[in-house]
Amino acid sequence: MRKQIIEVAKRHFKELEKLNLNAILGHTSQKSKQLEERFEDYMIRTYGFGRGCQFNDKNLRITWKTFLKE
To answer: Considering the entire predicted model, what is its pTM?
Structure first.
């Protein structure tokens, strides 16, 4: 999805023609991981959200058997 957005942006903005697509995709992926980690830490600290069981893949994370402490 990110790749398609960048390609469309390249067509509309001439300044982006020399943009290194792989570098941008790597950077946005890294920022997305940081955001997920910070959100998870926030949920654990604030609401006592348990990690339960997790399946992690390159593109997604599935969490089940979790709980919220009161």
So the answer is: 0.55
